[in-house]
Amino acid sequence: MTSSSSVAIAPEALRDTLAAALGDKALRFVVRLGEVTVFVSPAHYLEAMRILRDAPGCQFEQLIDLCGVDYSTYRDGAWEGARYAAVSHLLSLSLNQRVRVKVFCPDDDLPVLPSVNALWNSANWFEREAFDLFGIVFEGHEDLRRILTDYGFIGHPFRKDFPLSGHVEMRYDSELRRVVYQPVTIEPREVTPRIIREDNYGGLH
Is the pTM of this model over 0.85? Predict the structure, then answer.
């Protein structure tokens, strides 16, 4: 027999429950493809996440993902909002429901958000990844350092303006007998694929 708690709530009903719990800490809600997304301001982000974890009807015990997003080229550059955002996915095992939380960094030049690592320890590596790849600083994180790129890496490779070749390259110097870093020596170039215009190519008609 299936218990009532295992039946997923309709997204519109979940939106209403979350709206009542969050109050003015929620900027807006979007229901699309059966999923609920709540937008919160950076000033209320930490408290909103605490409510989503603890409030009756919410009870999102698990943070299953957190990633950074760079909107600078979104819709071919027509985006007019803040550049960087953090997007989290929360799961309630007890109530069988999910929610996506989106918060934009208030400063494009120095994107900073509060850390939620004290609420969910799974945020530890996720926030480090968003810092490493997008340069989003999570205030209150006790060990915010790179996690995917090398120690000597310069820049944040998932930013839309980061060059494909990077800024520095690494090589082993046989005279110094150690690895050294130097500016990239690869000339940027555009590779145009060869177009075959032969008639009946490959036996095709």
Answer: no
Structure tokens at 19: 């709206």
Domains of the chain in start order, with CATH, are 4-145 (3.30.460.80)
Distance CA 115, CA 92 (A): 20
Cβ atoms of 155 and 166 within 8 Å: the answer is yes
| pLDDT single digits (tens) 26-64 | 999 999 999 999 999 999 999 999 999 999 999 999 999
> How many angstroms separate the CA atoms of 56 and 152, rounded?
46
- Let me know: does 87 contact 102? Beta carbons within 8 Å: yes
Q: Please state, in angstroms and rounded to a whole number, the distance separating the CA atoms of residues 196 and 103.
A: 48
65 vs 49: CA distance, rounded Å: 13
Q: Which two tokens stand for residue 105?
A: 């960094």
Alpha helices (runs of H) in 73-151, residue ranges in sequence order: 123-134
- Considering Cα of 57, then 63, then 64, then 68, what sign does the dihedral take? positive
What is the distance between the alpha carbons of residues 107 and 85, in angstroms, rounded to a whole number?
11
From the list 71, 131, 147, 65, the residue with the least C-alpha distance to 101 is: 65
